[in-house]
Amino acid sequence: MTPTHFAFSSAFILGLTGLAFHRSHLLSALICLEAMMVSLFIALSLWTMQLNSTNFSASPLLLLAFSACEASMGLPSLVATARTHGSDQIRNLNLLQC
Amino acid sequence: MDFIMYLVLFSMILGFVVIASNPSPFFGALGLVVLAGMGCGILSWHGGSFLSLVLFLIYLGGMLVVFAYSAALAADPFPESLGSRWVLISGVIYLVGVVVVSSLVCGDWYEVIWVVMDELVDFSVMRGDMGGVALMYSWGGGMLILSGGALLLTLFVVLELTRGQSRGALRSI
Amino acid sequence: MSPLMFSTLLLALGLGSTVTFSSSHWLLAWMGLEINSLAMVPLMARPHFPRAVEAATKYFLAQATAAAMILFAGMTNAWMTGQWTIEMMTHPLPLTLVTLALGLKIGLAPVHAWLPEVLQGVDLTTGLILSTWQKLAPLALLLQLPHGNSPLLIILALSSTLIGGWAGLNQTQLRKILAYSSIAHLGWMMVILQYAPSLTLLALLTYIVMTSSIFLLFKLNNTTNINALATSHTKIPVLTLFAPFILLSLGGLPPLTGFMPKWLILHELTMQGMGTLATITALTALLSLYFYLRLSYSMSLTMSPNNLLTSPLWRLRPHQPTLPLAISATSATMLLPLTPAAFLVR
């Protein structure tokens, strides 16, 4: 395990912990998802660069395109939720619980 | 040189700690900007200048949009700033956790050589990642089409999710 | 939603799963999963209700987290072993991570909490897609993984059958009951995954047949809770007589189709010398059987207080095509003689 490997692994796990445990705003959850995708982007490009396998270095761009899809998927659901539920607090999303 | 690298890595983790400790979305966006900038530093240090540029442009451009949304939608009367009690406590807990885990796995770290890509090739005009990314237009054409299709699909999805009287961002008067 | 948009989204749904089926590389598999969940969310938010929007948002959050975890596991494997192939993920740490993430995607028990809520918020057609087609791509990935002799799958499976049976006891909403039944059936698929993957496929196939027939039946009946089931006799009398067989087939009683995967799985488990596990799994199926029995009791074994037993004319005839329901209901009850003998003679 190199320090960079440790750095992005702990970064991803921090983002996942923040997403899983305490979120008050839906927007904060989306920001956490974005941060997780950034750490994956950094990891993927560092993998191609450290192994000098430059043929693979188009794949971080593809990852970035898909994470942009995900982010732009999250914002309209945020808008729709804010319109139907009044605010973007996650604790307002309680219509469906048992 | 190694010292700056460690500093940049630590600053990136600090940005993640800011995000993970649940402040208001303004400060979360700030942490995202910090970690994207530090990620650019890491990538360019390792020789991926083009990927670093892409990350910088897309994330800082995209974060502007997210920041606008957060300013428009998440209007807290009492925002949780970075100095608030629970934000500070959980941030400190996360930092201590990262430091403890890193000191636990520190013995397993093998010797660090920050190999910069194409460092051993003298007088190279092109960076390796540029050549690699350009392969997306020849051999990786299928993946390019797939990503383009996914982006187009996202356009339709966004249109479909926010269409109508009761779900769009602007209220119908 | 316009038909053009609807068909585009359905095509993208199919495309995403197909990309995942045909990929051997983690990045491409992740892309397929992303396209799949991208196309699913507007289908879920199709009716303009707060419940549907909330279900779509929750589904998006769970799926995006699971997809990011899958990619992180693939990345960790690549950093540790230099290998991106799905079948070569041999390091135990990323294997555990990706099993948990795929469990989150299909709703296995310790990470199942989104599934009943999301299924409660969508309409029955989307619920049918969610509980059949959306399970296929993550299960294809789970089948390709090189599980050694991992206790993680056993833990996931046992807790799924237990929680799927236990938490469904308390429900009166049909879609939540179906969600818990889905969790329990997925637990049955997981318990055999590392010993006989073909049995997992068989269980998945029979589950898809049975659950699509029950979803189509409720759709035809237009019911979403147990109370409304009481009117089904005046509406569709023949299907009301037939419904307990479908429900008990889901529960796994002998002369019906649902007995086949449970029988073969228990047989295989005892052949592997795990009698205790087989016993516990069979006992947890009784919990699920209780709520299937309750559904069939309130649907067709009791006569609701009604003074005329013929079909009243004030209900309009349903416009839904009934051929899929006929086919799936027939095969959900009568496929037991087609049990592959190859599983029994070994």
Short characterization:
The complex is a heterotrimer of chains A (98), B (173) and C (346). With 98 residues, chain A is mainly alpha-helical.
What's the arrangement of secondary structure elements?
The complex is a heterotrimer of chains A (98), B (173) and C (346).
Chain A lengths: L2 H18 L5 H25 L8 H27 L13
Chain B lengths: L1 H19 L4 H21 L3 H25 L11 H21 L22 H7 L6 H21 L12
Chain C lengths: L2 H19 L4 H19 L5 H32 L10 H15 L7 H8 L2 H21 L6 H16 L7 H18 L5 H25 L10 H4 L1 H15 L7 H13 L3 H27 L21 H12 L12
EC number (chain A): 7.1.1.2
Membrane topology (chain A): Multi-pass membrane protein
InterPro entries (chain A): NADH_UbQ_OxRdtase_chain4L/K (IPR001133), NUOK/Mnh_C1-like (IPR039428)
Bin the helical content of chain C. Answer: over 70%
Termini separation of chain B (Å)? Answer: 59 Å
Main sheet overview of chain C: none
What average pLDDT do the residues of chain C reach? 90
Q: Ends of chain C: how far apart?
A: 52 Å
Oligomer description: heterotrimer
Helical segment count of chain C: 14
- Mean pLDDT of chain B comes to 81
Number of strands of chain B: 0
Shape summary of chain B: flat
Taken from the alpha-carbon principal axes, the silhouette of chain C is globular
Largest sheet of chain B: none
Instruction: Briefly note the structural class of the backbone of chain B.
Output: mainly alpha
The Rg value of chain C, from CA coordinates, equals: 20 Å
Structurally, the number of domains of chain C stands at: 2
Catalytic activity (chain A): a ubiquinone + NADH + 5 H(+)(in) = a ubiquinol + NAD(+) + 4 H(+)(out)
Organism (chain A): Solea senegalensis
Keywords (chain A): Electron transport, Membrane, Mitochondrion, Mitochondrion inner membrane, NAD, Respiratory chain, Translocase, Transmembrane, Transmembrane helix, Transport, Ubiquinone
Subcellular location (chain A): Mitochondrion inner membrane; Mitochondrion membrane
